[in-house]
Amino acid sequence: LMEVITPDEVMAHLGDCLLSTKPQEKSEGLQLNFQQNVDDAMTVLPKLATGLDGNVLFTGVSDSEYTPGCSVFDLLGIPLYHGWLVDPQSPEAVSAGGKLSYNQLSCNQLTSGVGEPAQRGRRRLFL
């Protein structure tokens, strides 16, 4: 018979793991920063059962904007990866927004009515 672990049990275990982590550095400034990261992680922890809000960058599989949700994984030493990459062999896609974040491209898409038609076409090519 397989034992079922509920999302609440997983979150409780992760919370225990987070609270047992210790900062590597002993300086007061780094300890305060570490404690803020733990506080951020504990705040966002319940939301992980339904997903993680992130702002990926299209420049690499581990490139993203650091958000409070990342703190859980950072503190536990778990790397985050994504598959949202620009094809480097597509100059059009690279120039359309290869260095922008997902949120920046989303905002560009929403405002694509503004600007010259050529710019709007490049934005659509990327998204």
TrEMBL record:
<dbReference type="GO" id="GO:0071108">
    <property type="term" value="P:protein K48-linked deubiquitination"/>
</dbReference>
<dbReference type="GO" id="GO:0016807">
    <property type="term" value="F:cysteine-type carboxypeptidase activity"/>
</dbReference>
<keyword id="KW-0833">Ubl conjugation pathway</keyword>
<dbReference type="GO" id="GO:0006508">
    <property type="term" value="P:proteolysis"/>
</dbReference>
<comment type="similarity">
    <text>Belongs to the MINDY deubiquitinase family. FAM63 subfamily.</text>
</comment>
<dbReference type="InterPro" id="IPR033979">
    <property type="entry name" value="MINDY_domain"/>
</dbReference>
<dbReference type="InterPro" id="IPR007518">
    <property type="entry name" value="MINDY"/>
</dbReference>
<comment type="function">
    <text>Hydrolase that can specifically remove 'Lys-48'-linked conjugated ubiquitin from proteins. Has exodeubiquitinase activity and has a preference for long polyubiquitin chains. May play a regulatory role at the level of protein turnover.</text>
</comment>
<dbReference type="GO" id="GO:0036435">
    <property type="term" value="F:K48-linked polyubiquitin modification-dependent protein binding"/>
</dbReference>
<feature type="domain" description="MINDY deubiquitinase">
    <location>
        <begin position="3"/>
        <end position="107"/>
    </location>
</feature>
<dbReference type="Pfam" id="PF04424">
    <property type="entry name" value="MINDY_DUB"/>
</dbReference>
<dbReference type="GO" id="GO:0071944">
    <property type="term" value="C:cell periphery"/>
</dbReference>
<keyword id="KW-0645">Protease</keyword>
<keyword id="KW-0788">Thiol protease</keyword>
<dbReference type="GO" id="GO:1990380">
    <property type="term" value="F:K48-linked deubiquitinase activity"/>
</dbReference>
<dbReference type="GO" id="GO:0004843">
    <property type="term" value="F:cysteine-type deubiquitinase activity"/>
</dbReference>
<dbReference type="GO" id="GO:0140934">
    <property type="term" value="F:histone deubiquitinase activity"/>
</dbReference>
<dbReference type="GO" id="GO:0005829">
    <property type="term" value="C:cytosol"/>
</dbReference>
<protein>
    <recommendedName>
        <fullName>Ubiquitin carboxyl-terminal hydrolase</fullName>
        <ecNumber>3.4.19.12</ecNumber>
    </recommendedName>
</protein>
<keyword id="KW-0378">Hydrolase</keyword>
